[in-house]
Amino acid sequence: MSVAQQRVLVQAADPSGNSVAARCQALGLARSSFYYQPCGESAYNLERMRLLDEEFTDHNFKGVLGLREHLRLAGHAVNAKRVRRLVRLMGHEPIYPKPRLSIPGQGVTPYPYLLRDRPATAPNEVWSTDITYGPMAKGFLYLAAVLDWYSRYVLSWQLSNSLDVGFCLQTLADALRVAPAPYIFNSDQGSQFTSGAYEQALLTAGCRISRDGRGRATDNAFIERLWRTVKWEHIYLNPTDDGHHLHQQLHAYFA
Q: Quick one: 50 and 86 in the same domain?
């Protein structure tokens, strides 16, 4: 049971009148974990994240040092440690050759990339998915979407404040409700898409699973291009105050 689930159980009304301390002890949850409230990122860091995201959207080959120099040239005195933490928080990963590429992660089923030199010729033949960072005036959210390769139609999308697999599964379920399952479903090798739950959902729907090669963003170029379009045509031009506002804006934009 996760800490979040334990906190929900402790917070639920207790007819026997046990104290919070007793309920935490019964569930094996530290009281400090129950009362903890995340403080979020400072306004300074949020502004740097927005600048990093803009630069990474244009030049996704830049690593920590390249992004650090971009901020320094723009007049922002930051060190590599801060840039590395913020880039990891946003979920950005530059394109570069990784060592020992032929060895898959532990417990991950290897699937080949099925779309090389294979154009999509009809709707619902090939779908792809990905996650990107969505900046707001105060804070940020993660955006996931499922895209049809032939029509470039955004079948479904979801926002989340964490990179868990749940909102990715919801995005997939929403897409399967509006269209028949595709012949091929492509994704990168992110932990959300290589998880057992996501893999099982695709196999149950009857999809053939395709995955990008490591460090090859061009394998999923259509949805990468979607993120650039969404950000430059909408998010950066219409900064939102909170998650509710961002959801309204994206709903109107995708429609």
A: yes
Supply the pLDDT for residue 120.
Answer: 86
Q: What is the pLDDT of residues 164-188, one digit of tens each?
A: 899 999 999 999 999 999 999 999 8
Domain range for 81 is: 43-90
Q: Convert the chain into a string of H (helix), E (strand) and C (coil).
A: CCHHHHHHHHHCCCCCCCCHHHHHHHHCCCHHHHHCCCCCCCHHHHHHHHHHHHHHHHCCCCCHHHHHHHHHHCCCCCCHHHHHHHHHHHCCCCCCCCCCCCCCCCCCCCCCCCCCCCCCCCCCCEEEEEEEEEECCCCEEEEEEEEECCCCCEEEEEEECCCCCHHHHHHHHHHHHHCCCCCEEEECCCCCCCCHHHHHHHHHHCCEEEECCCCCHHHHHHHHHHHHHHHHHHHCCCCCCCHHHHHHHHHHHHC
Question: Is residue 26 assigned to a domain?
Answer: yes
Q: What residues in the chain have per-residue pLDDT under 50?
A: 99-104
Both 217 and 135 in a single domain? yes
Q: Give the count of domains, the chain.
A: 3
| pTM to 2 decimal places | 0.66
